[in-house]
Amino acid sequence: MVELLEHHIAAPQEHPAALGTRLPSVVETDERAARRSLREQIAKLERELAAAFLAAYPRALADWSVPGRGGPRLLSLGELERLRDALAARLHSARAAIAERAEFEERNRVLLERMRLEPGRHKFVRIAAVDVGESGCGVYSVRPRLGIVGMLMGWWQVKLSSGCPLPQGSGRDARGPAPRP
User: Fold this and answer.
1) At 173, is the secondary structure helix, strand, or coil?
2) Does one domain contain both 134 and 87?
3) Quick check: 19 pLDDT over 60?
């Protein structure tokens, strides 16, 4: 038995072609199936990129544009793979930007809550409304109540500014156009 094992181990391995079995010379790929799969992957990535855009709206946190490809044409498998990989990279960076912005807004919401609870500990701190996830031009700020008297007495409050400044025009105000002479 030992001699049989030694003979089997010592016997040279023969190539399959030498045994009479033939390997296929060309591996045929189903290009249609590969294209279909890549197009489905690209469509899924585009849907996810659109969903990320809607989640971040109205903030512009990432590049959402879709570049043109120079007119209608059939993309090769390599071009489809590069397009898929580029979309995956854009989706990853968009999600990272959205997560970073959400974390920034959450930190500011916590700070705003602390400002409201203890305004005296956060004197003259300002936070823009957009930095807490709200729309508009308002700014939350900790200010003394009743001016200098409130500052000396330790009377502090959180105020939200009234919003966006009025547009500055040439000779116009909130009442309409300037009168003609």
Assistant:
1) strand
2) no
3) no
Q: What is the CA radius of gyration of the chain?
A: 34
132 and 155 in a single domain? The answer is: yes
**Co-location of 157 and 94 in the same domain:** no
Tally of domains in the chain: 2
pLDDT tens, 130-144? 888 888 888 999 999
- Predicted structure pTM score: 0.62
Which residue range forms the structural domain that includes residue 39? 30-64+77-106
What whole-number distance in Å separates Cα of residue 122 and Cα of residue 53? 35
In a domain, 101, yes or no: yes
Task: Measure the CA–CA gap between 60 and 75, rounded to whole angstroms.
Answer: 30
Q: Peptide bond preceding 58: is omega within 30 degrees of 0, i.e. cis?
A: yes
* CA proximity to 141, closest of 126, 128, 153, 151: 126
Residues 89 and 49 in one domain: yes
C-alpha 139 chain-centroid distance? 25
Residues 156/120, Cβ–Cβ less than 8 Å: yes
